[in-house]
Amino acid sequence: MNQRRLDQLLEPLVEEERFALYQGLARFADEELADKILGWERSHQLLPHDVIEQLGSMGVFGLPIAEQYGGQGGGMTDLLLAGLALSYQSPSIAITPGAAVSLGANPVLKFGTDEQKEKYLPELSAGERMFCFGLSEPGRGSDAANPQVVATREGDHFILRGEKCWSTNAAWSSHIVVHALTDPSGRNGHRSTCFIIPIDREGVHYQEMEGKTVWPLSSTGSITFDGVVATEAEVLGDLNEGFRVMVTTLNGGRLFVASMALGSLAFALDKTRTYVQQRDQFGGPIGRFQRVQDVVLEMDLALERNLTWLMHLARCHDDGSIKREQAAKVKIDCSRVASRLLMDAMEVCGGVASLDEFGLARHSADLFVTRVGEGSNRALMTQAVRPLLPDIADQLQ
User: Considering 222, 239, 263, 351, which has the largest number of Cβ atoms within 10 A of its Cβ?
Assistant: First the structure.
């Protein structure tokens, strides 16, 4: 495997052992997956189960989970390195372990009871099962603090009704972490609760969402709850504190989304700088024109700047010092800059960039999800600006 520009920028930013982890996963993606991705996409199939099993055997699903629960004992930094390595070839492959860990296992790791951790984390760490995260709804996206899925207490249990959608990994998940309204009269941020619900429970209905044009290898499900019973033992975190579970979970998820945006940008940089040195027009390679050079350099500047920033925030996440606005800002910037520069790269490469086999169109399409996933950038900008305008923060909309 030829060293990529991403490798050169990343190596000084992480410890030798972690860089070796990244290289191993990048090599796996290059040698075992790259040649198969286009065939999977053209046949409209989800990521094959044997790939998920391979990722599980490599320990990817357990990277940030403590060794006592069967994990690798690493942290968010390790998970982001996996995101960079896998998304370079395909973001819709990277999101499978990414969402399984950041949105599925991490809520249990951070908020689960001892019994819940011991029951679920060993199999989640091994990739033998997955949890998906039930947050978005047909009528609720950015206004996630006020879910329309309702959990009504009846004696010693709850009854769940409503629908979740855009749930990544739903096809492979044994359980869904459901964010539901439990106290409609409670103050904002203290009226919802998270539950761990088996997908095969009576009243739970799953279907794959059709017509999706991005992340083609990733499962995206709609899950409805028709009078589903949830017990006290299935509450994740404290009662009426589901918003805290959700917000903490999304901090890590936003960092992972940022890593995928940078993986796509890194692919585009290498693809474009190779192409412009080989494509002859007007008597020589098009890379000799300054306007083409500008695009290549802008991609390199953005990759180096945002990669350094992201690795810093990964360490902040691992030591517990990261703030909500920091995770939001890096997700916003990485996704927006990568999206803009991918379009510039496609313009430079011309018509060939529209072909699926060239690769740029895949990354350009998939980057859309990084702009709206884990919180729409437009909504997150309001959240991120609040600390800058403290005197009127409660008036911002």
Answer: 263
User: Please, which residues bridge with residue 229 across strands?
Assistant: 159
DSSP string, 127-138: TSSEEEEE--BT
Residue type, 35: D
DSSP letter, residue 31? I
For residue range 178-227, list pLDDT tens digits in order: 999 999 999 888 999 999 999 999 999 999 999 999 999 999 999 999 99
Does 203 share its domain with 307?
no
192 and 265: one domain?
no
Q: Residue 207: helix, strand or coil by DSSP?
A: strand
| Locus of tokens 């199939």 | 45
Measured distance CA(319)–CA(209) in Å, rounded: 37
Confidence of residue 1 (pLDDT cuts 50, 70, 90): very low
Identify the CATH number of the domain in which residue 113 sits: 1.10.540.10
Residues 6 or more apart whose Cβ sits within 8 Å of residue 168: 95, 96, 99, 103, 132, 133, 218, 219, 220
| CB 296 within 8 Å of CB 273 | yes
Q: Containing domain of residue 215, as a range?
A: 132-243
Q: Is the pTM of this model over 0.85?
A: yes
State which H helix or E strand residue 379 sits in: helix 377-385
DSSP 190: S
Active site residue 123: no
Are residue 82 and residue 46 in the same domain, yes or no?
yes
User: 307 with 322, same domain?
Assistant: yes
Backbone φ and ψ of 282, nearest 5°: 55, 35
> Which CATH number belongs to the domain containing residue 235 in this structure?
2.40.110.10
**Chain position carrying tokens 């860990």:** 101
Helix (H, G, I), strand (E, B) or coil at 3: coil
Residues 203 and 84 placed together within one structural domain of the fold: no
β-strands 204-208, 157-168 pairing: unpaired
Q: Per-residue b/e over 141-162, b at no fewer than 16 CB within 10 Å?
A: eeebbebebbbeeeeeebbbbb
